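Entry type: protein chain
Record version: 2
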Amino acid sequence: MSKDLARLPSLNGLRAFEVAARHLNFRLAAEELGVTQGAVAQQVRNLEAQLGLQLFHRHSRSLFLTEAGRSYVSNIRKAFELIAEATDVLRPEPDHLTISVTPTFAAKWLIPRLTCFTDSHPAIDLRIMATDRMSNFQTDGVDLAVRLGRPPFGPGLVADLLFEQAVVAVASPVAVQRLPLGADPLADLPLLHDAHDLWPQVLAIAGRGGRPAPKNIRFNQTVLAIEAALAGQGIALAPRFFVAADLGTGKLVQILDVELRTGADFYVVAPRKSRTGAQVAAVRDWLLRQARASA
């Protein structure tokens, strides 16, 4: 052991001192370190003995740093930070990437495909922000977003078409089969609305705009309307790619032959210049490949 290392105090003593100095309380320091209060006090006393200096003023119900203690703890914290930084270099964390999507996109399309993503990109720590709010790339820490709209989405942003939005009316076949023979589902099943409120447009293009409305149930999320339809509660409107899997398995059936095209489609949007450019490109390319495969 070198002479410099031989001069170093006990690492346990230094750690106990730093935590006690932060809390100014041996009991709280002991709770953080997972040892007894007596063990913390003893480690600090041993450190003081080794240094030949008093680091704390001890009173019956309070603890204060001495002038030497205040000076020493500042440098000790810097030393611990250097050790932590050196350790992080040896054990780098995965690359973090935050993607902003709507709750329905997350639930009905992205989450079922996450295993495929993690298998393909194990080094990327994907963080999903599910919100209907338009996230800000600068202030919200978002690297990538899936947005419904029409480009351009803003200066300095690149948008790639993910899906064209074709809205269809769907219901559970069980709900349809419960109706009397020859009954009209649109006349007898509740219409399940979401925040987009597209039923008037769908009924208009289906030539049903003037009919009296049956019972209406309203939700603030498309995913909730879809789940209600799956549970046999009525007819929901949804972009076809959200319900493609349920239509394919027969859990849902299409009630009308028409599709509504609103002119707003789903795009992958990212800043032209990004701090995580390679990771953003990898996730964007994966999303586009998945979209093509599910089209």
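Comment: The chain has 13 helices and twelve strands.
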